[in-house]
Amino acid sequence: MNRPPEINMSRIAVGGGVGGAVFAIACACLFLVGVPAARWLLIGSLPCGLLVALLLFLRHKYKPVQLTEILPPNTDTPDKTKFWNSHKNGMS
Asked: What's the distance, CA 22 to chain centroid?
């Protein structure tokens, strides 16, 4: 069977690193210099974002999500742990 040539996105290597971080920070700085109103947005949103991140971190640390919170137990269906373990291993 002849398949048309396609770009397989899963085969494209994408690496993060210092170069990407420098580029992102430089773009953010250029944006902040070019749009003065964005400075106030950053000043207001940065503490809010840090607070939300801290709350999510503490919630996960002291009360991790259980499988029963995602899939409540049901007597009509088979055991959910067998389902998740079989799919985690690639079996269906």
From this structure: 21
Helix ranges (DSSP H) in the chain? 18-34, 37-62, 67-70, 80-88
Within-domain flag for 5? no
- pLDDT tens digits, 51-87: 999 999 999 899 887 766 676 666 555 555 555 555 5
Residue 8 lies in a domain: no
Contacts of 81 (CB under 8 A, 6+ apart): 67
The parent domain of residue 57 ranges over: 17-88
- Tell me if 92 sits within 8 A of 86, measured CB to CB: yes
The dihedral built from the CA positions of residue 44, 50, 56 and 62, taken in this order, carries a sign that is negative
